[in-house]
Amino acid sequence: MMANIVHSTSRRLLPAVLAVAMAVVMGCGAASALIGPSGGRVGSEAPEFQGIVNWINSEPLTMEQLRGKVVLIDFWTYTCINCIRTFPFLKEWHAKYADKGLVIVGVHAPEFEFEKLTGNVINSANSFGLEYPIAQDNDFVTWNNYSNRFWPAKYLIDSEGVVRYTHFGEGDYQSTEDFIRKLLEDTGADLTGVAPSAIIAPELAPEARPGNVTRELYGGYQRNASRGGIYVAQEAYYGGSERIVSYVDQGDHLNHRIYLQGSWFNGLEELRHARKTEDYEDYIAIKFSATTVNAVVNPLADSPFEVQVTIDGRPLSVEEAGPDVIVTDGRSYFKVDEGRLYQVVALAEYSTHELSLSSNSDNFALFAFTFGAYQDGP
Fold first, then answer.
1. Where are the beta strands (DSSP E) in 299-378?
2. Is 209 within a domain?
């Protein structure tokens, strides 16, 4: 893997519509409050990169200097599970077509404040093996120039600088690669011997439909205000100001809700455990319908800590545990040492369960739960 270089500047194979719908249901999805002007339409000139705070893996680039190349703009953020699922295809396209004239530019637009840190983005790029240029669009300037609304979102630009194809959400990988190949061949690139991708995109479980699969659940009151609130306890708090609330979980959980027990700080972006404990008596609980569950967690201090996980009131088995979970000595837990998405549950079949996360640390801050509903895959 080549080393990451940072340059500071001034300042699922699904039909397209279903892919967008499921992206919103299962995580990341739309950010309608960030709608920009009118750029990024098919047939229009591709907007310039603007407001880029740092370039990673590349010197600063401009659309003007990329004339003659085929450019794939990929809007992403590193805690977005929908974005993460597209990486195998992006990496393969970069490996196969970079020397044929394709330039992939990952425009990183952060969903949470901690995702603005360059070190975090570099760590994620290294972890996922992303070697193509990455532009940090912390203030959503380029995002708005493209009128973008989704993570992930792809804009394919021809050698003349014209947007020729767009795709929002996961899926349609074959169609996207077909367009890449066509535009490269239009420039005279010889693709003889370069086979299209053989990666098989995962299929949704038959029961997975919008409304059934648990939607993305945010910890902070900022995003919950538009959804009518999601905390359900003896005292329900839906936002308006930051404060500590003592919750009592009454049980009888429903899908699409977060339930709390104990003392929790309600923040703009996060739910934070508001006290130190000894016996994991405070917890966050959800009832979910999915195959996979992920938790976006950011530690508020440098000291690592553990988050204990239970499903249906018991520890996860090895077969149920996500890649980040340790199962040992009758416990299941994951260690938090950086702000990122932690893969917590990975079930063989789509089903409904109760999940609980608990930590004795007062540095435990939950930003979001995201969910998957594929028969095979993350």
1. 305-311, 314-315, 326-328, 331-336, 340-358, 365-372
2. no
The answer to the question of residue 309 being in a domain is yes
* pLDDT score of 177 more than 90: yes
Cα separation, 14 vs 172, in Å, equals 6
| Structure tokens given for 189 | 């690139």
Same domain, 165 and 248: no
- CATH number, domain containing residue 257: 2.60.120.260
The DSSP line for 97-152 is HGGGTEEEEEEE--SSGGGG-HHHHHHHHHHHT--S-EEE-TT-HHHHHTT--EES
User: Is residue 202 scored above 90 in pLDDT?
Assistant: no
Domain count for the chain: 2
Residue-level pLDDT at 38: 63
CA 269 to chain centre: 15
Domain that holds residue 241: 217-372
Residues 261 and 165 in one domain: no
205 pLDDT band, cuts 50/70/90, is confident
Model confidence, pTM: 0.88
In angstroms, the CA 378 to CA 366 distance is 20
Q: Name beta bridge partners: 351.
A: 290
Tell me, yes or no, whether 195 lies in a domain.
Answer: no
Instruction: Tell me if 203 is assigned to some domain.
Output: no
Strand 365-372 and strand 283-297: the pairing is antiparallel
Q: 353 phi and psi, to 5 degrees?
A: -150, 170
Buried b vs exposed e over 280-306: b needs ≥16 C-beta within 10 Å?
bebbbbbbbbbbbbbbbbbbbeeeebb
> Residue type at 290?
A
Of the candidates 157, 274, 207, the residue with the CA atom closest to the CA atom of residue 284: 274
Cβ neighbours for 230, distance < 8 A, ≥ 6 positions apart: 217, 218, 224, 238, 256, 257, 258
Domain harbouring 146, CATH code: 3.40.30.10
Element (H, E) at 234: none
278 phi/psi in degrees, rounded to 5: -120, -25
